[in-house]
Amino acid sequence: MRITSMISAFASQASSSSATFLPPHVRPVAKAIHTPDRSLTARWVPINRSFIALTKIILRSAQEKFGLANLAITLRCVTQQGYKHLILVNDDQDVQITAAGCIEEIIISTDMPMSPACERLDARNAITLPVDLNQQRLGYLVATLSPASENGVEAGELAQQLAAVTEEFIGVIKRYQTRYRAIYVYGDQCYWIGNSQALRQLDQQITRLAGYSKPVLVNGNKGSGKIIAARALHCERHSDMVPFIESNCAEWQAGAATSILQSLYYYANKGTLFLRNIDKLPESEYPALQAFINHAVNQALANLRRPPVDLIMSTSGRDTSLTIPHQQWLSEISTPLDLPDLNDRTADIRDLINFFARVQSRQQEVQLSENIWQLLEKTTWQQNVYDLRRLIEQAASTTGGKLINDPVIEQCLAQHHHI
Questions:
Q1: If you average pLDDT over residues 90-98, what whole number do you get?
Q2: 216 and 168, same structural domain?
Q3: Quick check: is 182 in a domain?
Q4: What is the per-residue pLDDT across 353-398, written as a single tens digit (0 to 9) for each?
Q5: Cα dist. 253→9, 143, 260, 278, 281 in Å?
Q6: Domain count of the chain?
Q7: Which of 13, 17, 74, 214 is the most buried (most CB within 10 A)?
C-alpha cells in the first residue's frame, strides 16, 4: 500500500541549533512519499496499446530510413488475467510466476497487426538481430529487404545500422519500467500520456541526465509536467525505494530558508530533494539557497562520487522574475531540462483526451469527427495539459457521463474562450 505522509521541515533531527520552529497552524513544507513493500515494484512491462504504438513508430521510422520491405520484432510474453506482459526475469520468484502463466511469442510488425506465434515471419530471407536486456534474450528484430535494395545493401552494414534500432527499443523498455515503477509509487497519471516525438526525446534526455550528479533545473510553463519530470528522473536514477522529498519554495516561512533546507536535506538522504518554484523565493532568501546548493555541489565534486542527495529544482514558468545574476548562477551550477508545451506535442492530444475521459468515467466515450480533432490540435493551450484536462472535465460534466461528441466539445471550447 502506498503511504503518503507530510513531514515538518523543522524536525529536531536536522541538527541545527538555530532551527526555527513553525507554529502549529502553518502547514508543513515538504512531502515524503514512501513505498515500504518492494514486492509491488513493477518488473514486467505491459504490452498494451501505448507500448505497441510506440514500437510501431520506431519500426516504421527505421523501415523508411533503410528502405526495408518490412521490419518486425518478436517478443516472448506471458499472459495473466487476460493481459500480456513482456517477460523481464529478475529472480527465482519471477521465474516461478512466469512458469505459472501462459508463455507465448508475439510479433509486432510494420505491415501487420500484432500477431501470434503461428503467423511467423520468413526469417530465411531476412536479417535477424537479437534483442537483449541485462544479458536476457527478449526476442529478435527481423528486417526484410525490399526487392529494389537487396543487391545494393551489404548485410553487415545493415545489421550495424539496425543495431541502433534495437538499442532504441531497449531504451523504450527501460523507460516503461521507470513509468510503471512511478505508477506504483505515485499513483495514476504520474507520467506523460502520449507517444509524440517530443515526448520520446524528453524520455531520452531524462535517461541521459539520470547518469549525472549535477543538479537539474526543470524549465516549463504551467501544465507542462514539471512534477512528473522530477519524479521520472528520480525513478530513473533509483531502482530502490529511497526518499523523494518535494517542497514548494513559495510556501516557506520568511527568514527560515536555511533551517528548512537543512531539514529537507536530512530527510532526503540517499534520495532526491525537489525544490519547486525557486523563483518565488524572496530576494533576501537567495543567499541561503545559493550557499546550500553550492555546498552540495562542491561536496559531490570533492568526493568524486554521487552526492548523498540528488537535487532537482524548477521555476514557476519559463518567464520568471529571477534577476540576471541568479539566472547566470543557475546556468552554471545546474543542467537544464526543458519541457515542451502541449502545442509542441499536438500528436498526444488524442491520447490525452481519451485518457482524461476514462478518468472521469469508465463508461465515458469520446466520438469526434476529424474536423474537431484537428480543431483541438490547432487550439492554443495557454496552460497546456491543465487546460485540456479542465476542458474534458467540463465536457464529461455536461454529458453526465455519456458520449462526448462534436457539439459538446465546441460548446466547451467556446466557454473556455479558445475560439
A1: 51
A2: no
A3: no
A4: 988 888 887 767 788 999 999 999 999 999 999 999 999 999 988 8
A5: 11, 61, 9, 14, 10
A6: 3
A7: 74
- Give all strands (DSSP E) within 151-293, no chain letters: 216-219, 244-248, 272-276
Residue bearing cell 519500467: 177
Are the CB atoms for 360 and 366 separated by under 8 Å? Answer: no
**Residues 169/58, Cβ–Cβ less than 8 Å:** yes
Phi, psi (degrees; rounded to nearest 5) at 296: -65, -40
Domain identity same for 136 and 201: no
- Residue 178 forms part of a structural domain: no
Within-domain flag for 186: no
Q: Does residue 227 carry a pLDDT above 80? A: yes
Instruction: Give me the CATH number covering residue 162.
Output: 3.30.450
Say if residue 273 is in the same domain as residue 358.
no
Position 134 scores a pLDDT of: 80
Residues of the domain holding 94: 45-173
User: pLDDT tens, 57-81?
Assistant: 899 989 988 888 889 999 888 877 6
Q: CA torsion angle for 179, 184, 185, 190 (degrees, to 10)?
A: 40
**What would the pLDDT profile of 186-202 be if each residue is shown by its tens digit?**
766 667 888 898 998 99
How far apart, in whole angstroms, are the C-alpha atoms of residue 176 and residue 345? 19
CA atoms within 13 A on the CB side of 52: 14
